[in-house]
Amino acid sequence: MITVIVGYLTVFLYGATLSWSTPEIPKLLNETTTPLNRPVTIEEASWLSSIVLPAMVIGAFLFCYLSEKIGRKLALLSTTVPLASGYFILAFGTSIELYYIARFIVGLGGGVFILMPMYAGEILEKRRRGAYGSVFGLSITAGFLFTSFGPYMSSMVLNLILAMIALVFGVLFAIFGHEVPYYYLRRNEHDKAKKVLQKIRGNQDVLEEFNEIEAKCLEKTEDLGQVLRSRGLRRAFIMSLGLQTGLHLSGINGVIFYSQIAFEDIKSGMDPIVSTIIVNVVQFLTSFLAPFVGDRFPRKTNMSVSAIILCFANISLAAYCYFRDSISSSFAFVPLLAFVVFITVFSSGFGPLVPVLLSELFPLRVKSTAMSVTNVYGAVLGFLITKYFFAFVQSFGLSGYYLFCAAFNVLIAAFIKFYFIETRGKTLEAIEDELNEA
């Protein structure tokens, strides 16, 4: 459906916003390549990388609130404003203060990472949701891949391209975008909701689907207090927090935000820019495997095995960083190989399975509340890890960072093995019953 494909341009920009620091921070730190009136400090660089994460949380709440007041279409369309304006400021700004403001503004637009899946889930037919859900992950990794070519263009050109993509989305979505029936039903405009659904589906009979949507709109939701009072839901909530912790402490933040800097610091002799591009190409390609791997193996097995492989990749990086002065140049390929193994396993298994598991752990009546709290926790954790990456590396070295991540890979593998339940192939009701009985 063209309206969803156009909408995924914002998801591409979300990925580019996250990985923007990979090509741009090295330029900003360098006196000859910085677009600002002076090179930035390490502390300033850490803020530029991490400030988008709390902004995305604010943006998620802001645009989700707007989606209830003015509709999904207009809320999505309004993300064009922070995305385009933020990147225009980054293109022409010459002071660190303007860059702080611009990164925060762009981060607000990154709130689309909650809004776009909501829109796609509400406008697509059931049989198409899985395929388009895979496109969500591909769009993010496409954004990562695009920014990895940032070193070959000026900061102005990179940011102008991203600003223009935001404007193209705005124009196309204004023309092709549809409002979802859910919005009209919540406003008790049943006739309008049915007309919109019929327009979206064409000549199909929409009565059965319309009745299902109507029933969902009547479901009651529960607050966090009610979630925590239920034994089964309390366990699901602990699992969700554990998943977010394992996700962010796996080492992926260092790959997304600082891979080029890491390759430069490792000094393996291989071109850091080319190495970063190779890692992002592999990540993009392995994202195609995620839907097949995710449903072929049990969730627990997939997640725990993935965590152990991530552990070995992190240990390999830690060992190379620690012994690099005494390692033969014939082993210069080890860091790139470790990064490729890490990103292959993460992108085809661990990474995409986390949101799948989060969506499966909670019944519909509490899903919105529980997942909102879980996502806020994940964003705060991601912000802290990204913000203090440089400080940690300065204190303990890259080898210390990778060992720290390897230790958490083992912990999350044990947590999944001994605390989780299997969810593959089970209904939400069956999962809730098993959580209550465990």
Automatic annotation (TrEMBL):
<feature type="transmembrane region" description="Helical">
    <location>
        <begin position="131"/>
        <end position="150"/>
    </location>
</feature>
<keyword id="KW-0813">Transport</keyword>
<dbReference type="InterPro" id="IPR020846">
    <property type="entry name" value="MFS_dom"/>
</dbReference>
<feature type="transmembrane region" description="Helical">
    <location>
        <begin position="370"/>
        <end position="393"/>
    </location>
</feature>
<feature type="transmembrane region" description="Helical">
    <location>
        <begin position="305"/>
        <end position="323"/>
    </location>
</feature>
<dbReference type="InterPro" id="IPR050549">
    <property type="entry name" value="MFS_Trehalose_Transporter"/>
</dbReference>
<dbReference type="InterPro" id="IPR005828">
    <property type="entry name" value="MFS_sugar_transport-like"/>
</dbReference>
<dbReference type="GO" id="GO:0005886">
    <property type="term" value="C:plasma membrane"/>
</dbReference>
<feature type="domain" description="Major facilitator superfamily (MFS) profile">
    <location>
        <begin position="1"/>
        <end position="424"/>
    </location>
</feature>
<keyword id="KW-1133">Transmembrane helix</keyword>
<feature type="transmembrane region" description="Helical">
    <location>
        <begin position="399"/>
        <end position="420"/>
    </location>
</feature>
<feature type="transmembrane region" description="Helical">
    <location>
        <begin position="98"/>
        <end position="119"/>
    </location>
</feature>
<feature type="transmembrane region" description="Helical">
    <location>
        <begin position="273"/>
        <end position="293"/>
    </location>
</feature>
<feature type="transmembrane region" description="Helical">
    <location>
        <begin position="45"/>
        <end position="67"/>
    </location>
</feature>
<feature type="transmembrane region" description="Helical">
    <location>
        <begin position="335"/>
        <end position="358"/>
    </location>
</feature>
<keyword id="KW-0762">Sugar transport</keyword>
<keyword id="KW-0325">Glycoprotein</keyword>
<keyword id="KW-0472">Membrane</keyword>
<keyword id="KW-1003">Cell membrane</keyword>
<feature type="transmembrane region" description="Helical">
    <location>
        <begin position="74"/>
        <end position="92"/>
    </location>
</feature>
<dbReference type="InterPro" id="IPR003663">
    <property type="entry name" value="Sugar/inositol_transpt"/>
</dbReference>
<dbReference type="GO" id="GO:0022857">
    <property type="term" value="F:transmembrane transporter activity"/>
</dbReference>
<dbReference type="InterPro" id="IPR036259">
    <property type="entry name" value="MFS_trans_sf"/>
</dbReference>
<feature type="transmembrane region" description="Helical">
    <location>
        <begin position="156"/>
        <end position="177"/>
    </location>
</feature>
<protein>
    <recommendedName>
        <fullName>Major facilitator superfamily (MFS) profile domain-containing protein</fullName>
    </recommendedName>
</protein>
<feature type="transmembrane region" description="Helical">
    <location>
        <begin position="236"/>
        <end position="261"/>
    </location>
</feature>
<dbReference type="Pfam" id="PF00083">
    <property type="entry name" value="Sugar_tr"/>
</dbReference>
<keyword id="KW-0812">Transmembrane</keyword>
